[in-house]
Amino acid sequence: MTTMSLPHQLITITVVVIGTMITRFLPFLLFPENKTPPAYITYLGNVLPYATMGLLVIFCLKDAVTRAFAFPELLTILFIVIIHKWKHSTFLSIGLGTVFYMVLIQNIFF
Fold it and tell me: How much is the pLDDT for 1?
């Protein structure tokens, strides 16, 4: 196993910091607050959150559909929908859904 030298470590950290700063500050530089963003950017801002959530759900369920029993996943989705419709709290839905799924996987469907 080889280790990086100190200059190599510093260069790597610097490049990562610069890359992170560019991705954080570039939208504010390209689209200042006093200027209306292009219609396409506004459209993406409205559509991408839902598309991202859909993609995450599909990604999480991709292995469940290949198994004979996807009960923990289906029960958890039902639980999350009920909690979210009842309390209208995203954080509560995510937190309780995660706890519910872990209890199912660790204690019931292991």
Answer: 65
